[in-house]
């Protein structure tokens, strides 16, 4: 089984599809695009593999860990973790403040650390 964080669109969605094509059941997470996660799940299921979707925000470590454990409980032992979740802001580069950068970096680092710790 593989969990692909932020697999509701883009690189995460395609990673989920490619892993399903290789025979993995897929845990699909999304933060704000449930419809995108459902689309990814349908494409995974078209390969003959199982898909489970769940909302996840890795910025909250205890809750994020519980959510990832729910996927493991539903799909079985985790073999692959694609830690695709990130953070960004929508602004012109020259309008981004140091505080914006600091917050974004902090969120990205927490997410990068929280997912692997949660599934060990």
Automatic annotation (TrEMBL):
<dbReference type="InterPro" id="IPR002347">
    <property type="entry name" value="SDR_fam"/>
</dbReference>
<dbReference type="Pfam" id="PF00106">
    <property type="entry name" value="adh_short"/>
</dbReference>
<comment type="similarity">
    <text>Belongs to the short-chain dehydrogenases/reductases (SDR) family.</text>
</comment>
<protein>
    <submittedName>
        <fullName>Putative oxidoreductase</fullName>
        <ecNumber>1.-.-.-</ecNumber>
    </submittedName>
</protein>
<keyword id="KW-0560">Oxidoreductase</keyword>
<dbReference type="GO" id="GO:0016491">
    <property type="term" value="F:oxidoreductase activity"/>
</dbReference>
<dbReference type="InterPro" id="IPR036291">
    <property type="entry name" value="NAD(P)-bd_dom_sf"/>
</dbReference>
<dbReference type="InterPro" id="IPR050259">
    <property type="entry name" value="SDR"/>
</dbReference>
